[in-house]
Write a structure and sequence with these properties.
Length: 420
C-alpha cells in the first residue's frame, strides 16, 4: 500500500470517530436540555399550584355527614421514612408449607402497605416443621425479623377425651349436609388452636400485641400509622374489619354452652359487655335475610382472619376459663365451632365494649369479602386500590353485621377521641 493510501485511511478513521463522538455529545446535550425543560415545567406547575392556594386539606375537608375516620387527612408526608415500630408486637401467620405463594402474596401486600416502615417481626406457626424453601422466601420478603414455630401436638391434635365414634359421626353428617369444611378434621384442629392456643405458643410469649394475617389476603390501602400504637393509645384490645353472620349448622350448641358458662361463672361477665351486638334481632335497613334461629344468638361474629389484638386478654383468667369450658364440651369436634364465633363470644362477653375497635380505614380483602373505606377522602389519601361499591365490599350488604355493631358499639371513630 502506498503512503498516501495509508494516510487516507487514517484520516477517514479519525473523521468517522469525530463524527460519532459529536453525535454522542449532541444526544447527551439534547437529553440534558430536555430534562431541564421538564424540570422548569414542573417548577412552573408547582408555582401555579401555589398561586391557586391548592390545599388538599381544604379540598377533602370533612363534610357534616362524613363518616371519615379522621378529621385530619392521613396524608403520609414521610412515605419512605422508616421509624421502626416501638410496640411489643408481632405479625402472626398460621400457615402450611404448600401455601408459600399465598403467604408471600399476603406478606408483600402488608409489607408494602404497612410494615416496611415499621419492621415489626413476623411469627410463623405450623403443625409440621417449616421447610427450607418456606423459611428462605418468607425471611427475604419480611422487612422485620422472622421466627418459625412448631406447634406442640397437645395444642393441635384432637384431645384424648373426644369420643371417636361421636366425632366420626359428626364428620359423616356434616359431609352429607355439605357443611363448609364439615368434612375436614384438620380444619377443626385449626379452629381449636386459633381459639385457645395461638397466644400460648412459646415464640409469642414475649409479645403483647398480635396482628393476624392469612395467606391470600390483600390490604387495599396504605396504613399511614402504626395500628398497634393506635390501639394502645386508645385503650383498645380487639380490632376487627369485617363482621358477618356465621353458618348456624357449624355451631348448633355453641351459644347455649357459652350461656351455661356465664350462668356458672357470672363473675366473668364484663359489666360493660356488648351482649346486644350478638343478640340484637331488630330488622335493620340492610337486613333482608331471614334468620330462623334456634336461640338468642343472631350469628354475628368478627371475621377472625383479620385481627389486631392484645394477647393479654386471651391469656387472662376469664378467657382461659371460658375456653377450657368450651373445649371440654367437645364442640370443636362434635360440631365445627369456628375460632371466629368463639373469639367473638369471648370478646363480647368478657371485654369492655369500649375496648373493641372497628378499623374502618384499613382496606382489606379475604375471599369472598372485603372492606374498602367508604370515605372518598380516605381512599385518595391512603392510596387505596379498591371499589367501595363492589359487591364484595361487605360493610352494608345484608350479610354484614357492621350496621348492628354501629348500633350497639356506636358509630364513633378515633377522631372523636382527638387522636389524629
Ligand atoms: N399449619 C396449618 N395451618 C392451617 C391448617 N389449616 C388451616 N391453616 C391456616 O389457618 C388459617 C385459616 O385457614 P383457612 O383455610 O384460610 O380457613 P378459612 O379462612 O376459614 O377459609 P378459606 O380462607 O376460605 O379457605 C390460614 O392461615 C391457614 O393457612 C393446617 O392444617 N395446618
Ligand atoms: Mg382463610
Amino acid at each position: 500500500m502506498r503512503l498516501f493510501q495509508k494516510v487516507w485511511i487514517v484520516i477517514t478513521c479519525i473523521l468517522a470517530l469525530l463524527l460519532q463522538t459529536t453525535s454522542f455529545f449532541k444526544e447527551k446535550l439534547n437529553s440534558v436540555i430536555y430534562e431541564r425543560e421538564l424540570y422548569t415545567n414542573y417548577l412552573s406547575i408547582i408555582k401555579d399550584t401555589k398561586q391557586f392556594h391548592y390545599d388538599p386539606e381544604l379540598k377533602f375537608r370533612a363534610k357534616p355527614a362524613t363518616n371519615s375516620y379522621s378529621q385530619k387527612l392521613l396524608l403520609d408526608a414521610n412515605r419512605d421514612v422508616i421509624t421502626p415500630g416501638k410496640e411489643n408486637a408481632t405479625i402472626v401467620m398460621l400457615v402450611r408449607n404448600w401455601e408459600l405463594d399465598q403467604a408471600l402474596q399476603s406478606m408483600r401486600s402488608l409489607e408494602d402497605r404497612f410494615n416496611k416502615k415499621y419492621r415489626y417481626p413476623w411469627t410463623f406457626l405450623n403443625d409440621v416443621p417449616f421447610d427450607e424453601e418456606f423459611i428462605e422466601a418468607t425471611t427475604l420478603m419480611a422487612s422485620g425479623t422472622t421466627e418459625y414455630g412448631l406447634i406442640p401436638s397437645e395444642d393441635w391434635d384432637r384431645p384424648s377425651w373426644i369420643n371417636e365414634t361421636e366425632f366420626e359421626q359428626s364428620i359423616k353428617e356434616m359431609t352429607e349436609n355439605k357443611v363448609l369444611y364439615g368434612d375436614s378434621k384438620s380444619y377443626r384442629n385449626m379452629c381449636r388452636f386459633n381459639s385457645g392456643f395461638f397466644f400460648k405458643q412459646k415464640l409469642l410469649q414475649k409479645y403483647e400485641w398480635y396482628f393476624r394475617v392469612e395467606p391470600s389476603v390483600e390490604y387495599y390501602c396504605d396504613f399511614n400509622y402504626d395500628p398497634f400504637e393506635v390501639m394502645r393509645l386508645n385503650k383498645k384490645k380487639y380490632g376487627f374489619i369485617i363482621s358477618i353472620h356465621e353458618y348456624e349448622e357449624t355451631i348448633p350448641t355453641l351459644y347455649d354452652t357459652v350461656m351455661d358458662f356465664i350462668e356458672e361463672n357470672p363473675q366473668y361477665l364484663h359489666p360493660n359487655n356488648s351482649m346486644d351486638f350478638i343478640t340484637d334481632m331488630d330488622s335493620l335497613s340492610n337486613m333482608h335475610i331471614r334468620l330462623d334461629l334456634s336461640n338468642d344468638y343472631n350469628l354475628c361474629h368478627y371475621w377472625s382472619n383479620f385481627e389486631i389484638g392484645n394477647m393479654d386478654f386471651f391469656r387472662s383468667e376469664p378467657y382461659q376459663k371460658f375456653f377450657e369450658y368450651l373445649d371440654k364440651k367437645g364442640g370443636f369436634y362434635y360440631e365445627r365451632w369456628g375460632d371466629a364465633p368463639v373469639h367473638t363470644l369471648g370478646v363480647t362477653l368478657l371485654m369492655d365494649k369500649s375496648e373493641i375497635h372497628y378499623f374502618e380505614d384499613i382496606g382489606y380483602f379475604h375471599a369472598p369479602f372485603g372492606n374498602c373505606p367508604s370515605s372518598n377522602a380516605l381512599r385518595l389519601t391512603k392510596r387505596c386500590v379498591c371499589d367501595a361499591d363492589a359487591e364484595s365490599t361487605i360493610d352494608i350488604e345484608e350479610h354484614s353485621c357492621l350496621p348492628r355493631w354501629w348500633k350497639v358499639g356506636g358509630k364513633t371513630f378515633l377522631k372523636d377521641k382527638g387522636v389524629f
